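Researcher: Structure prediction, please.
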Amino acid sequence: MVRANGAVSLRELARVVQTSEVTVRRDVRALEAEGLLDRRHGGAVLPGGFGREPGYPQKTHLAAAEKSAIADLAAGMVEEGDAIVVGAGTTTQELARRLARVPGLTVVTNSLLVAQALAHANRVEVVMTGGTLRGSNYALVGSGAEQSLAGLRVTKAFISGSGLTAERGLSTANMLSASVDRALVQAANEVIVLADHTKLGADSMFQTVATDAITRLVTDEHTAAEDPTARELDALADCGVQVSVAALGLHADTPPVHPQPTAAVPRRPVPPAGVARAPAAGPAPARPARRAAADRPPARRADPLTASGPAATALWPPRPPRL
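Model: Predicted structure follows.
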């Protein structure tokens, strides 16, 4: 799978081979010792150093559920009438698919995939940069793209990359892509990075956004107290980055829950026409009195930290338990 896709998450490996992530993590360590792959936080990649970047077909299958949850959360940060820039990538493509219903939105992008996702959104204006097409990720790069962004000012920039660390910030493996991403970031008041857990702690050749320039990170919930990704999130939060964690919904391989069949209730016989229905034996049961409003228990408010489903979110670090 790693050779076919270029990179793969531990969760996806565990699902395919039908075993636990603990077992997969142990096997990945053994393969790394033999030089067959490189471990990354939450996944594995082919050995090849900083310069290797998977193509679009490989990226679409990597952490797909996590990217979808991140896009759901990030879409809620876009308001009616906003003007935003959206960079290239499979996660930003997922975000664009969720922005089609935002009225009065203006999206500036260098990504053909983002523009295609919004092509039929009547209430969204899409502005494409110039530049030279980079076929591996369907993005416009080069001096033409950078010059078209000069003098632009928008509210938010949504951007992704190959790796994210507290030490270097966001980075990517391609120099031309990094230059355009820097121009996108310079045009925005807020910089929002979309990065799933496989990119946390990973580093690449060219820095895109320094850590102190990142306003917010949107990532997925694949973290634990002892996980290196959790430590990376703590370090980013210490640097002033606001961290939003998107909760994952049910996995695609989770069996559906079917309702239990109920026993058939015998139908009461209907008397023939002209025959009065016999009254039921005994007095009619009294209806219970309705409780006064003052006696009713107060309605419980939903806690977003305990809610389930893809819309459930939490801020990092987690809240301490209530005493």
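Model: The radius of gyration is 26 Å.
Researcher: Thanks, that helps.
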